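Hello forum,

I keep getting stuck at the same step: I have a sequence, I want structure tokens, and every attempt I make locally crashes halfway through. Rather than fight my setup again tonight, could one of you with a working pipeline run this one for me? It's a single chain of 508 residues.
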Amino acid sequence: MEGKREILIVGGGTAGWLTACYLAKFFDLPRHPALSITLVEDPRIGIAGVGEGAFPTLRSTLEFLGIDEFAFIRETAATFKQGIRFDDWLDTPVDGRHSHFIHPFEAPLYAHDANLVSHWLSQDKASRPPFAEAVTIQQRVGQHHRGPKTGAEPGFAAPLNYAYHFDAARFSAILADRARTLGVVHHQDRLLHAAMDQTGTIDHLQFERGGEMGADLYVDCTGLRSELIGGALAEPFTSVKHILFNDRALACHVPGPTADAPLPSYTLAAAHEAGWIWDIGLRDKRGVGCVYSSAHMSEDRARAVLADHRGVGEAAQDARLISFEPGYRARQWVGNCVAVGMSGGFVEPLESTGIVVIEAAAAMIAEMFPFHGPVDASADRFNMLMTARYDNLVNFLKLHYCLSRRDETYWRENVDPASIPPSLQTMLDRWRHRPPGRFDFLIDVETFSFFNYQYILYGMEYCTEAVGGPAGQSDAGSMFARIRNFSDQAIRELPSHRDLIEAINMGT
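Reply #2:
Ran it on my machine without issues. Output:
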């Protein structure tokens, strides 16, 4: 058919199947005969499924794809995620003394006539409540193990912002079923090699059973193997290991808490001597992993640190080792090939940015895909936006490390100005005199908003000079009291997180 275009996605998993779903839905594939989408995945390559956390953007993505929220929760053993709790990131524990702060997903309460951030900064540091507790009800809701909704709201609706914890393998299966329903053709086959044409772009792919397959656009979702963009096209990789030191993770499952124990609705990120441990509570088990820098910790020591974490023990010896180089490819769309997910870049698991980048890439490919003319007509724009997004992610993640007061070598080197990107240092210098604001960021290349930076800065006790805000600072005091009262009300009226999950799984 004249004008017909074909998209071939190589690799399944979250990256491949989410991209396939998004494109098929965006283009209304069954009613668009000018386009075909095929996904080929290697049946030998499994999905870890050790428990994964997402960012709230996944709610709108699932809704757009037409996936029922409650069915998703039931089929992926999912729980709600209202933020991240950071244990011992500020100080090394001494004599049993620990510190923590929470990064909630709900934005601070805003009022035109009361500058809450400025008012909080002007309060006595010794007596004021934690920043997140002062400006939003979600910290206390999460600490009391309440859910973000009552269960009476329809799917994706809630009074509080949230994401999910889920089993990654089960999630990929849901996406695969939805993609096939939307018209995506699915093959299981092994990629042998990519044949190049005289211009240096992909001519066709050779598969073990299916032979030659060609397309107008090839989407590389082969993960860290990066078989097309990094292998066939040899696109250079930009490492950020001099900024973000972590390059290893040990991941395992352990039994979940007993049925009568509270079910956390936040990801736990517990700092250790050379990195941190994630602890994600699913419906029936926990996904736990030790993230660390191989330059500062051996694998044996990392397994010992993981074994010491609550409830892990001997499971640490069987934990799967994942090696990665933090960084990205500056050009993720080259000619007729575009990388999505880990094939294009991966920085580290902190703040669950992996799926966010997949969502952003899939949306941009959908918006930029041309049905006429060169298929790479918008590649330069795509690459500029993705590079900017990665650079900003690196800044945000580095923020978590470079403010620490911990005394281990790993943490001291993270604080070293030589490891801090100049753009982040400029912002930190600026924020000595005022808090982060919305004009500090360009929304189209950001994953996190200014208030996300505020939660990390002030959770890590960053010192911003008390600044004068707009008139009405006395009103700010009453706003803080209202937030506290709203928190008390929400704790009384919202169900426990465990009760909410059980009700959804029972279909009630």
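The chain is about 35% helix and 20% strand. If your local run keeps crashing, start a new thread with the error log.
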